Amino acid sequence: MRRAAFLERIRAQLRRSGDPPVPPAPHPSPEARSRAAADAPVARFRERLKELEVTLFPVASREAARRSVGALVEERGWATTCAPASLRWPGLPGAWVDESREAQFGLAEARWALAETGTVVLDNRGEAARGHSLLPAASGFLVAESRILPRLGDALRRLAAAPDDLPACVSFVSGPSNTADISGVRCVGVHGPAEVFVWLIAGE
Amino acid sequence: MAAVSSASRKAFDARVARTLGDPGLQEVLRSGQDYMQDLCEAAREELDWPAWLDAVGEVRRHTVAHLDHYVEQFAHNVEMHGGVVFCAADAAEAREYVAELARRTSSRLIVKSKSMVSEEIALNPALEATGAEVVETDLGEFIIQLCGERPFHIVGPAIHKSLEQIRALFSTLAGEELPPDPAALTQFARRQLREKFLSADMGITGANFGVADTGTIVLVTNEGNGRMTTTLPRTHVVVMGVERLVPDLEGLEPLLTVLPWQGVGQRITSYITAITGPRREGDADGPDELHVVLVDNGRSAILGSAYQDILHCIRCGACLDVCPVYRQIGGHAYDSTYSGPIGAVLSPLLEGLPRHAELPFASSLCGACSEVCSARIPLAEHLYGLRRDAVAQGLGSTAWRAGFDGFATATEHPSLFGLAERAARPLLRLFAHGETVRRGLGPLAAWTHTRDLRLPEPRAFRRLWRQRPPGQGGRDPGGERKAGGGRDERGGRSAP
Question: Of the candidates B115, B174, B177, which has an alpha carbon nearest to the alpha carbon of residue B140?
Fold first, then answer.
């Protein structure tokens, strides 16, 4: 159907003049939102990760994070890891691979994290591929402590403030891929990673 | 008058009887509802729940009330980011567009993430007619696709399938006996579907929401199939109801706060994906083409009517999880894409009351659905409204209609009313055990088949009132009429 006719049908049914609407007031009220927001974001974030069965490595610096990632890769015997170029430091046990589908482990940098839900927010753009945090069976995220926001709306407002900077894909990831579609029993690793690791960097 | 309904009524009763007669299914329905209600208790303690529901209702009300504006803005912004928007007036237009796209892009293998709208428009057969293989990738949808069934629940499409049924189904597919272990069966499905994802040409998703201000598509999933579908195939097609928009990114907050609690009893789902256009220059992955099909298919006809707010629905499934009728009859009894209270209102509005005349009556009008609704939609009131519409259109069952016509006549003729009042007890007593009628005949059976009926009291209220001791105040019922003719008084006096 031609778009003009499609829109006209809706407009006629609504008996609207076609004037632009006045945008709605902030939702919900700021009071309700603050009640839901975390008082101590870092502690809350760590608590939520535990509930989501995410393995947390608190580290003091980026360098410490690198050593910790290397130790885990070695311990697990992962032969292939994918990550954007900025995270591909030399000396990692196993090999860096370009194709996410061939990797056993994927590493990504969180743009933000959300305390209330234990969420990491990922900008998938350029070398930071969507597949890095999706195709390997194990997934790791680097999260700078200063990047922890209270809740979802705080990230949405930041995205809304810079619409021209919105990448083609933003992912909000909270724990492992899971389902309860078979007789209501929770199972992890349906399509995405079954294991999730977070390196929480205190110095950043 | 009842020509439309008697056959479809029988079919409805047969579907209901199938679920009622299946003890396994009854247990699944009971435990499923109880489980969801326990989970949602937590949300009500943790959040200022009423304020969030108000916020959801307000965002949805505002958007739907100005839908033409937001659709135009959304379409413009999708295109700004390199997407293509198609406005489909009905199911056929939507199907043809996607099928033609599949032909043009030579898509042989199509993977789908869960989309109720694609069920509504029967997209899969149209795609299969192009020669393509179509694979549902949500685990629940995958299971029911293998069975050739409809979703049983709008959030959990395969909740009615037992572990043993799924084991047998997957074992046939695997060509070997698989263990009765949900984790092992899930891993089997992962391997099967991973292969499909890696070689798929086209990915089709629904949209939980579209953001008008940025042209963003928002997908909420736990399994990650939504992400796979929007990452691997070179063409991504979104099939969404035209009403599923919000004005801006901030408007998503209440919706994404309430939806996971109501739908799956979680604070948030594992994945929320915000897609704005196809992959950009320099992006490592993502589809080359993005098409958004906005489906009207009866929605615009609801705008401006008494039922406009049904379009505020965010498909959380909460009304199914509290409905005492859904608890008994399950999703397949509704014989429509959408089941439960939302289905009982939405399906007759989208497809016409004659097609779904039974559904507004498949309700106890208890109001639990209205109370739980994420968007504050007065579902029970709409069920009641649709009953009135059905009766006005002559769609009620003959016995039911005769009963109400009889009642109307009696209330207009006081002597007749008095006669019925006196005759009711002796007549009903023929079918009664003690003070309860459990098994009636003829039109009475329509009631007693599913409900108990108490015998009327030996002395009717009107008689008691007239015989009240002197000095107790009040006016005789029908006192105003007495001066005018006193027919009801005469009837009263001759009562035994």
Answer: B115
Task: With beta carbons under 8 A apart, name residues in chain A contacting B189.
Answer: 190
Question: Residue A69 falls within a domain, yes or no?
Answer: yes
Chain A residues inside the 8 Å CB shell of B309: none
Which residue among A124, A126, A175 places its CB closest to the CB of B270?
A: A175
Task: Pick the closest to residue A42 from A115, A110, A109 (CA basis).
Answer: A115
Burial class (CB in 10 A: 0-12, 13-18, 19+), B226: buried
- Identify whether A34 is part of a domain: no
Per-residue pLDDT at B493 exceeds 50: no
CB contact under 8 A, A169 and B267: no
User: Could you list the residue range(s) of the whole structural domain that residue A134 is in?
Assistant: 54-201
Give the pLDDT band of residue B118 (cuts 50, 70, 90): very high
Task: Give the CATH number for residue A172.
Answer: 3.40.50.10420
Domains belonging to chain B, first-starting first, are 47-301 (3.40.50.10420), 399-466 (no CATH)
Beta-carbon contacts below 8 Å between A and B: 269
Is the predicted pLDDT of residue B480 greater than 60, yes or no? no
B contact test, residue of A151, A158, A183, A186 with most B CBs within 10 A: A183
Q: Is the pLDDT of residue A159 over 70?
A: yes
Asked whether residue A5 is domain-assigned, the answer is no
CA B141, CA B150: separation in Å to the nearest integer? 9
Quote the pTM value: 0.90
Count: domains in chain A: 1
| Least confidently predicted of A80-94, B33-47, B464-478 | B464-478
What are the b/e assignments for A49-65, b being 16+ CB within 10 Å? beebebebbebeeeebb
Measure in Å the smallest separation between the Cα of B47 and chain A Cα atoms.
Answer: 6
DSSP string across B447-472: HHTTS-EEPPPSS-HHHHHHTSPTT-
Mutate to test the interface with A, among B273, B293, B294 (most CBs of A within 10 A): B273
Residue B7 CB coordination number (10 Å): 10
Q: Flag whether pLDDT at B483 surpasses 50.
A: no
Read off the tokens for B125.
């057969």
Interface residue of B38, B60, B68, B70 to substitute, partner A, most A CBs within 10 Å = B68
- Is position A162 within any domain? yes
pLDDT at B486: 40
Single-letter code of the amino acid located at B45: E
